Amino acid sequence: MTAPDSAARISVAHLLLPAAFGGLQRVVHLLSGELVRLGHRVTVGVLSLPGGAAEEYASLLRGEGLSADCIPVKGRGYMAERRDVRAWLRRVAPDVLHTHGYRPLVVDAPVARRLGVATVTTFHGFCGNSLRERLYEGLEVRAARHAARVIGVSRRIGARLERGGVAPQRIAFVPNALPEREPPMDKDAARRALGIRDDLFVFGWVGRLSREKGPDVALRAHSLLGPPRPLLAVIGDGVEGPALRALSRRLGTVDEVVWLGALPEAHRSFRAFDGLVLSSRSEGTPMVLLEAAHAQVPIVAARVGEVAEVTGEDGALLVEPERPELLAAAMDSAMSSPGLTTERARRARDRVAALFSGATWVERHLAVYVDAIRAGRAGG
């Protein structure tokens, strides 16, 4: 391309190693669809570990008419992976490689730069659940110093990147957004799909079952609610699953917690919930929050990341993180004041529609891609 701008046609290659469940995959899915809708060329490279979620994710993308290529990789087969990614990039010939997550950035982005392809990477959040994860995250931030542009989905992520040595002029704040897609199911249909009785008050919890998402905080808050205790419906999967089920047994809530696992297109069933609980210890701009607001589901959430920016102070009940007693009080308030709860949900829906539209989101990404291409040509 010559003199690229946000209106020019851009060829984008996304690269990720998908998990079975999570917002990162959802972001790549939605962003790719919006870019293609605007006439840009997009190919998604899906790193495929044995037993991983790559084939299922690629099939989901292809089912919506998106181009997706599975690239088989092995745990530490980095040389072979780089060789295969190099061959894929030569075939796809993108203007920009947009990586998501640790492995594509650290292992594969250098291959793109050697081929003269501009690199962009998005930091969707930090986990920091273990010494090993913190080490990997440190390496990821160091690797980001070499990307032409680095996207943080929250201001706190951007500040951490800057502290880690990423040049401020390379960092862009692009919060997640929610393009208009298919409407969610109505409440009755959603409850039938999830197998939940019509006569129950139900709080939903949706996310990866890992420490940073705070499912244990939600379980403890739920256990503090007096009888009759509402149902807590948990959608998601992850390494903490067995420990969380054991925690529910110790708390005496086994009969009031249902574990639904990782569900495809889970966002379509959110109206099964009388309220969504987000109990994270850390966040960026959580997709589950945007989707719940879009479905006009009342929200009770920890004040982390960009949560308050998404809902507004008057669009949800917000509490400090890692405080189960405060979360329980907010859940109790949501149950006891249905009129106020419904009004908050309406405000959150209107705010998301006004401030987190897909059109603005895509334009911000296109501007980042153009900057990255120009920086690559200038050697900066």
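Above is the first protein from milestone M3; the second protein from the same milestone is given next.
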Amino acid sequence: MLKKLKGIDIIIIFIILLLIVTTIFGLSSFKTDKSYEITNQYGDVVEIFGSGIYAHDSNFKASGSIGTDFTILFLVVPMMIAALIIEIKNRKIKSKLFLTSVTATVLYYATSVAFGVTYNSLHLVYIGLFSSSLFALIILIKSIKTVELREIQKLVLPSKGLSIYLVLSGFSLFVAWLPDIITSLINGRTLMLIEIYTTEITYVLDMGIVSPLMFICLYLLKKKDGLGDIVLAIILKACIIIGIMLIVQTIFQNLAGVFIAVPVLITKVGIFVALALFAAYFDIKLYKNIIE
């Protein structure tokens, strides 16, 4: 197998190792008896987690991050290992597409921890994870022959159902996050859950990158551009994983004593879980109809 390894395979192995380190440290931080309260820079009282690598993060952010770490370690890492093994054995477009989509989700996670959590002892690991997953994604996308992908894709894209899904998903990200920003602007104060942070990385990624990417994907699919198929695979895989991740995050937040109102659960968890179910359906159809 060593003779079959390529440069990108080494990078993926490196990413997997960094993910294991990051998530194990994160999970080992889950202790709920060390929290304390401070007054933040905005004059609000915030509960600080007080334990492990998330010791200086808020209780809300830290418990959610640990839920994310759990999902990454027990779902994404095995998925990435499987994707890498399949790619090494086959070197087909379908295997590359699978590995690319998982790597893109890892990049989303890496960006979130590198820019979103309070500085801690894993900062260099976060930088390594962010950098390696970013360049791995670029290499993987470049390695997929889009023209050939279009030829072996037997599914007529975009279907009416898929078009509706991409449009609704794109708008749903704004429905979930935009009201928080509008409310803060109207009230002349910062975001409700800004806590000790200066910005909310999830809002930036979801509304600034992921949502526009869904509409760009739809445009590319209508133009019969193979890049649209790649972007679609990335979006669907990310939606599936994030839908599962939000459930796990909510469980860990409840265990940490974080109260989440029912309307918030519906708009910020329920919507994404529903989208994940539809994403799983379209994802299965996508790979099933790639005939090599």
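Note on the second protein: The two ends are 23 Å apart (CA to CA).
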